[in-house]
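Review form for a predicted model. The reviewer records the input and the model, then writes brief findings.
Reviewer: anonymous (R2)
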Amino acid sequence: MEPAASPHLCNELRARARTLDTDALDDDLLRALGSRRLALLGEASHGTHEFYEVRARITQALIERHGFRAVVIEGDWPDAWRVNRWVRGLTGGSAHDALGGFERFPTWMWRNTVVLRFIAWLRRFNRDRAPWEQVGVYGMDLYSLFASVRAVLAYLDKADPEAALRARRRYACFDHFQQDLQAYGYAAGFGTGFSCEDAVVAQLTELLRTAPADDEGDPDALFHAQQNARLVRNAEQYYRSMFRGRASSWNLRDLHMADTLQALSAHLQQRTGAAPRMAVWAHNSHLGDARATGMADQGEWNVGELMRKRWPDDTFLLGFTTYDGSVRAASEWDEPAQVKQVMPGLAGSWEALFHEVGRERFLLLPQDGDGLRQLLDQPLLERAIGVIYLPETERRSHYFSARIGAQFDAVIHIDRTRALDALDDRVPENAEIEVPETYPEGI
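Model under review:
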């Protein structure tokens, strides 16, 4: 039997919900987010227009009013780095060109109209600002092993050709598998005696000991190479873990994301002289505290939990939910995206309860002494739609138990939402395929 919410709880939430205007942001929410160094801004799906739109508007306000200096996305580091250089005025071309690195499935996740408008705004914001006052865009995922290898080699080819030769010899280890990382993970994970672990660790160690070379006007060039080497090391470990079970590979992925946030913070603080404030864009499943969800029962942690533990007074978690509408998602991995109808929230879910509140958009922002967090601290179902949406098996594929008041510091509910507008759903024929452990849901 599914958990159920009482009519009393619905009435209490109706009394405490803050109605959100489509064109305005809640000042108390912005002050709460702006008082922390890390604003984790979630989404209940990877293909919903309103989640991306509201998140972008919140981020713009945090940049303008509260001095946020980094936007970190659930995307690959090399692809986001291309955007980073563009928004900081280090490369030319159009906003479309800047997003051109996101070639692999799911292309719509970052190649969409909301992100396009946001990075165009950010480039205008950065114009005429000193480098240390500019806002950058960074990726924190780890699926770009081969692209990161190329980035390390490109840096070393310019900075130290002899070191580049050593790096090529080390990374050639992956050539035994014709760049098939699933085959590599199977072979290395089942004790065949073959592993690239020592090679990638040696390369990262050497780069971390490297003194900065000519940065050609980019003070982040060495850090970019080091982060790519760190990604190759962590991705190698991730693919070795793929066949040991979901919890092992999920935990490695989210640990990499959390470590990336910490490394980026330390680098920006060293470069600018001040601890940076950062906005993070990723799925609710990564940014809500896993300890308050069914993930904990499976032995899984996530970014939200890790950052609350590391920066307990400097982390704010904002989640999003929706009741129904449409979403851009695929039915199978690597298939073209479709605009799919989102099923109404299941009985016994937070989505169904929030629908009963009877408002199109509202915010739940618990504050000291108001009792709202306690009201939300009970286990109900919560929906998570990744890049795959399977409405025919929705209960099994897309719902988990969550105490949403402990999972997030605040929640925005938008009752009916629509599909994200993609710039281009076409995946180039020569795009690399690095299938993540999150198949088939793709979160």
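Findings: The chain is about 45% helix and 15% strand.
Further findings: The longest strand covers residues 315-329.
Recommendation: see findings above.
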